[in-house]
Design brief:
304 residues; alpha/beta; Rossmann fold; 2 domains; four-stranded parallel beta sheet; 13 helices; 8 strands; 47% helix
């Protein structure tokens, strides 16, 4: 019997003409103001007009399929995609499973750190759709401490050290970052912040360093407070403390998209230059072979 795999990601606008629909969907059906819409359009324009997230997610799905086929033979697993805010939506992926006669599946979100406000909503949506179609879904809620993930991230930190001079490397802190969430999750003892710290702690331990810290980024534009310090504030504080260089490891994200290509590569880089800081970002995991092997490991572990 073929086992389904629902690989889930945030989704993105497919082009400038799709940004209004996409932004409205993120805002639970409330259209953005003209100023908010134009700001988002400007950000997309700054990274080339469209985010590569969907194409990367497609390659990740195809790559995971290839790894599972190699390990178990064709037909043992079938990978489907489900996006939170764009087609194919999560319910579309579940429906395609049902159409193909899938009875059991694994739900895997392309984000290692679990929060009831993020990963939890993807998995709940998948479970609700699947239960109505008679599909049993095993949910993978977190892979923040997966050994292969820690090794990949440590290798990426090590790979960017060479972009700094020998003098800079003598005092080179690491900033681990992830997408901010509203501060109210702290009152609910949501696991998200502690899981980010777990990942950072394990990567730093593997690198043999205690010279690291954490920050948040890409906070939503709402009236309620979001977790900090924001990456821009973090850089300001580091400059005030006398630092002149840092590595940013956005371990909360796996793929290149707006929050990486704009928020870090453009906005944070400009802020760092204004402060006299030299910062470098670790490369995203995207569809690199070692990351696809990690995804296959997670699927297999969920089947046991």
């Amino acid at each position: 019997m073929t086992q389904g795999v629902l690989l889930m990601a945030y989704g993105t606008a497919q082009g400038p003409e799709d940004v209004l629909r996409y932004y409205t969907h993120i805002r639970h059906g409330h259209p953005p103001t003209e100023a908010q819409l134009q700001d988002l359009l400007n950000r997309y324009e700054a990274i080339g007009g469209v985010s590569p997230l969907f194409q990367i997610t497609e390659r990740e799905g195809a790559g995971l399929q290839a790894v599972l086929d190699r390990r178990h033979g064709p037909g043992a697993f079938q990978v489907y995609l489900g996006m939170k805010h764009a087609a194919p939506f999560i319910v579309d992926g579940i429906q395609r499973m049902a159409d193909d006669g899938i009875q059991e599946a694994v739900g895997l979100v392309l984000a290692p750190h679990n929060s009831r406000m993020s990963v939890g909503t993807y998995l709940d949506e998948a479970q609700q759709a699947a239960s109505g179609l008679g599909i049993a879904v095993r949910s993978i809620r977190s892979w923040a401490s997966a050994p292969r993930l820690i090794r990949i991230l440590a290798d990426r930190v090590q790979s960017v050290r060479g972009r700094f001079t020998a003098e800079e490397q003598d005092n080179l802190p690491i900033i681990f970052s992830a997408h901010s969430l509203p501060e109210r999750i702290l009152k609910d003892q949501d696991p998200y912040p502690s899981q980010l710290r777990l990942t950072g702690d394990l990567v730093a331990q593997k690198l043999g360093t205690q010279h690291y810290s954490f920050s948040w980024q890409s906070a939503g534009r709402t009236r309620e407070p979001w977790m900090g310090p924001d990456i821009l504030d973090k850089l300001t504080m580091m400059a005030a403390d006398g630092f002149r260089q840092a590595i940013i490891c956005p371990c909360g994200f796996v793929s290149d998209h707006l929050e990486v290509l704009y928020d870090l590569d453009i906005q944070a880089q400009q802020h760092a230059r204004d402060l006299g800081l030299h910062i470098e970002r670790t490369p995203s995991l995207n569809d690199d072979f070692e990351f696809l092997e990690l995804l296959a490991d997670l699927v297999e572990e969920a089947q046991r």
